Each structure stands twice: as C-alpha cells, then as structure tokens.
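During the second year of the project, the team shifted from modelling isolated chains to modelling whole assemblies. The rationale, set out in the original proposal, was that interfaces cannot be judged from single-chain predictions alone. As a representative example for this report, we include one of the complexes processed in the last quarter. Its constituent sequences, exactly as entered into the pipeline, are reproduced here:
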Amino acid sequence: MRQRVLLSLFIGVAIVQLLVPGSMIYSREMTLRNGDQVRFRTTPVDPYDPFRGRFVALDLEAATAPIPEGVKLRRGQRVYAHLGVDEAGFATLTALSLKRPERVSFIRVRVRSIRGQTAHLRLPFDRYYLEEPVAPEAERAYRRHSRRDTRDAYITVRVRDGQTVLEELYIAGKPLLEFLAQETQPSR
Amino acid sequence: MSKQAIQWLYGELPILVTEGVLSADTAERLRQRYGDLDTQPRRALGLLICGVLGAILIGAGIILLFAHNWDQLSRPVRTILAFTPLLGAQLLTGWTILRRAHSAAWRESVSTFLFTAIGATIALVGQTYHIPGDLGDFLLTWILLSLPLIYLLEASLLAVLVWIGSTFWLSYAQRYGSPTLLFWPLVAAGVPHLWRSWREDAASLRTVGLLWVLSLCLSVAVGILSDRFVYHLWVIAYACFFSLLYGLDVYGLGTSDSLWRRPLGAVGASGITLLTVLFTYPQVWKQIHQYADHTDWPFNAWTPLEDYVVTSGLLVLALALIIVLMHRKQGLQVAYSVIAPLATVSYAVTLAGTSGRVAVGLFNAYLILLGVLTLRAGLQQQHLGTVNGGLVLLGIFIITRFFDADWSFTVRGIAFILLGTVFLIANWMFKRRGMVA
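Output from the structure prediction step:
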C-alpha cells in the first residue's frame, strides 16, 4: 500500500521533472520559429562552464540604454528594454521602462551597473555554446580576423513577447562554423 | 544505547563473568536485553558507498559528455539525448520504489543518479538554446526538481546535495539580487528527514553526517545573510550562531563522547575559538562604525530587514539557551556560549565610539578565561583532550600577543610577567592542596 502511494507520488514528481525541461524547450522552439529576427553587434571571447561546456561569451555593443527621467534603478533589477534599429540594420536599445511596453518590440533585461544617466544591462543572451575544441579556436580566428578588417561579428536573435533565443553567431557575414572552416583551411 | 557502547559491553561480558562480577545467567540476560549486534552494517556501508560513488561518477560522466557539445547533433537529436538519462534514471527509481525500497544502497545510489540526470538534462537544454549563464537559476531549478526525492526515497545523500546546492545558490542569489529569503525553506525542506534519522539513532553515521553538512552549510549562509546592509554585522551573527550550535550540543543534542560524532559541538567550539582569536585584533573593530555603501548594491528593499531578522533571531535564541545552561550550572559551557552577548556588547560599545580598544581588551581577557577554564575542567575530569584544548587556547594567546605590534613592548612585557606569576601561584596552590596536575 505504502509502495503504491510512494510510486504514484514519484510518478507525479517524475512528470514535473520531464515537464520543466520540456517547457524550456517548447517556449524556445516557438520563439525560434515565430519570433522576429534581430541582429546585435558583438565581440566573442572564449570561457568555460563546468556543467554546460565551452562557449564564447558575447560582449554586446548595444548593452546600454538611457535611464528615463525620474526613474531610480537598482543593480540587478529587471526592466524592459525597447528595441530599435540603427542605420546599418543592427539592434539598439532605445529606452527602458519598468512596465511591459504595449506597442514596441522589447526584451527583458537586468541592470548590471549604473553610470550617470546610462544603465549597463545584462542581456538574456550572453553566451554561445560550442563544441569543446571549437570555442578557443573561434576566439583566435576572430582576433586574427578583426586585426585585418573591421570588427564585424554579430548574432541573430529571435524575439517573441519579450522572450529571446540566440539563433546564430556570424563573423564576417558568415555563420561561425562556416567562417572557421574557411579561416583554418589555408593554414593547414 | 549506541552500537559502540553495546559492542564494548559484549566485549566486557566474558571478562566480568570469569572475574565473578556477573553470573553467566545475568550476562545472558544482558545479551537478550540489548539484542544481537548487527554484523552486517559494514558490508551494507561498503555497498552503499560503492553504489553512490558509481552513480555520481556515471552521472558526472554524462554531464561531461554533454558538455563537449557535439556539433554534428541537430536540435531534435539533442532533445532526445537530453531526456534519455533522465527517463532511464526515473524508470530505475520507480523500480527501486517497487522492488528495492528496503535497501538503503539502492535508494541512495538511484536518487543520486536521478539527481545528476536532472542536472545533465537542464544543462543540455541550456546549451542547445544558448540560455544565458545564470548559474543561480540553473541551480535553483535543479534543486527544486530533486527535492521531493529526499522523502520519496528516504535518501540522505540527496538532503546533503540539496543543502550544499542551496548554499551555492545563496551566494549567487545574493550577488545578483535575487530573493535570498528562499534559502530558508530550501534548507528547512531537508530538516524533517534529519529529525527522523536523529530519532531513530542519534549516533548513527547517517545522522552525524547530515548534522555535519547542515552545520557547515549554515556556517557559510550566516556570513552571507548578515553582512549586506550594516558593515560587520557578521560579528554579532557569527558569535550568536556558533554560541547557539555549541549550546544545542551541550543542551543534549550531542550524545557521543567523541567530538567527531558531535558536529554541532565541534563546529560551534571551533567557531567560537576562531572568532575569539580574530576579535583580539583591532582591525575587526576599526571599521564597525562605518555603514556599508549600499546605494548601488543589487539588493531588494527588504534586504536590511532580512539581515536584522537573521541576526536578532540568532541573538535571542543564543541568549535563551545560555539562560537554560546557567540554570543547569554548566560553568565551562556557559563560558563558551557567552561569546554571543560579549560580541554584541563589544559591537555596541564600539559603535558608540570607543575605537575598538574596549572590545579588544574584553576579547583578550575572554581568550585567557576560556583557556584557563578549559584547562581547569580538563584537570578536574582527568581528561587529556580537554587539558590539551586549554593549553592550545593559552598557547594561541601567548604566540599571537607576543608578535602583536599593536601593543607596546612595555605593556606586553608587564602583562606576560603578571600572567606568568598568576600561573606560578596557581601551581603552588595546586601543590599545597595535594592535587596531581
């Protein structure tokens, strides 16, 4: 009897254990399929996470926004950042608000630090995971490339109702793996 | 009675019978009274350790393999891959509940394996969708999904993992301004399990292990949770916390003679000693009147309140326990626990503007007092460990003060000579009373 109760309770817990990662996958798949595509300029560097492996950390150029008049922000606070586009077609953060904006496209961010009337923000896409040997190579390739040409790395992000999913990292207009294949070939 | 005591008794019985102290009949009745000594636990413990280590290694291996991040795998393949160890571990857990519920080795290993599988799954999902690097959220999801297993499988190791995980989570949550109050329910969730284990056998490896982990995790948490708003509030919080741990051990939670089997007493006493030595340095007290600049800190509006509640709660509990111990006339134990009010008073006095001189003097005197009282108790009880403890405390005092440049040579010289004289007088008095020291 006790076993039956324990087992049915466990089945309940097991379903939750499956549903949580399941819903993480579902909502991100929906964003990837139906979200609007936005591009952010970035600089990639290579660090490490003990659980999730190698990734390139993204140092995003557009990670700042002006603080609206009369609003006092705290470090770590969650705010809504309104999305805009510059002349070159890359994303900028045009304004911040504490309430969910109605008509503009937006992302949810956290305040990293405050300098004067500018808030530096932690955007919800700060790392791009890569296969173990590829991440350091990606950083090196980017450094070599950026010395010769302009610093033209960017990411594409899908945005849907404030939720974002990082889609692809581009260097010199090519998806990262394609760029790496091209970069490493002549030297071998 | 603990297993060691019964084992000792059974070893003594034949001798007592041959020496004629006990009759064979009485010895037999004693054996019946305490039952057979279980000779199985060592083997069971070996099984358990091997099982758990196997589960941890395989689980960690899966996490590492996933972390390699195979480029060739498409998103659907990764999704299937993410759920494979989780489903496998869940089926194994279900089977264990049905068929191996009585085996601690199975319950502990399988729950540990499921724990690592949950971590592997959410890590792989995070990697696939480049979910941002908030280790705090990752840990919290992991802990919350694993927590029920403590009770469904009676798994002590999972309680240990949840406590350690919660403490790690706390340090991240505090850095990024997440609600740290959540730490308390997370820790409390494992406490009923500990309570049940304690009721079953307070001296068992399980209970002792759980108590060690809990007291060490709380030792870390108190520092994180008390020092965010008012600078150096940890002085009071830690003094009260260690006093409370030590007091609880003396009050009756510590049931064994060996310090190793009394985690509350061991952590409490070491904490008290460490703090006392630390508090004899003026550096600790110098900055106490300065308030932390918290304008740009990632804290919520109620963070100061949380700090105050934690610290004052610890103070009230520690004081209540000291009063109880005083009623029982446990002099030495009261002396150790008194660090709680002593640190609080020193903090208040320093805050009032005495530049810490009073506090430093008080704690130097307190360190000598603890050393002397411990030494005396050791001599009275003829307990070598306690004698050594007292000598170590006095030794620390002598060495630290001898090299302490904060006091002038004259003051140190006179103080050392006076103290030396006091010890010689004590020696002479012991001799006159005919005590063997």
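Chain B is about 75% helix and 0% strand. Chain B has a mean pLDDT of 83.
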